[in-house]
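Dear colleagues,

As part of the handover before I leave the project, I'm documenting each prediction I ran so the next person doesn't have to rerun anything. This entry is a single chain, and its sequence is reproduced below.
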Amino acid sequence: IPSKVGFVENLRLAGIRLISLNTAVEIKGGAVPVKAMITTEVSVAVASDLQHIHVNAGVTLVGRPSKESFENPNPDESILNLALQYQALYVMKDVSNPIELVEEHGQEIAALGTHMLWPYIRSQVQTTTVSMGLPPVTMPMYIAAIQQLQQDDSPTKVILGD
């Protein structure tokens, strides 16, 4: 297994792909969703061929007309649901035990993959909301809370549009 500093040298990005995209919007009372709560999740797995590592980064976005709507949801309010997942595919070289590599460096690999995937996720969210005829949901360049994934595997939630 490579040293903690050098394990990245054994990974080569082979591709990035959109795995899933699901959207739905319901406009009620003429109020469009302008606030968004996003939940992010990242996972790392070794492919069955033992030659590739998959980093999956997903975002679930719920849009509502106001920030208060998240605390007290009203079924008569507009809502936007958007869920997407991107995958970074890494090829491993000179790795004798890929499962051990992921076990030892999974958090670092997740952070690396998320940095690579975030611009794609950000662009897809903005493009999709505009294509739906809604105000664009502009996500930050990089959500600092995602960095917590390096220590914690639980989903990260952030409300945008403040």
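The radius of gyration is 18 Å. The mean pLDDT is 83.

All the best with the project,
I.
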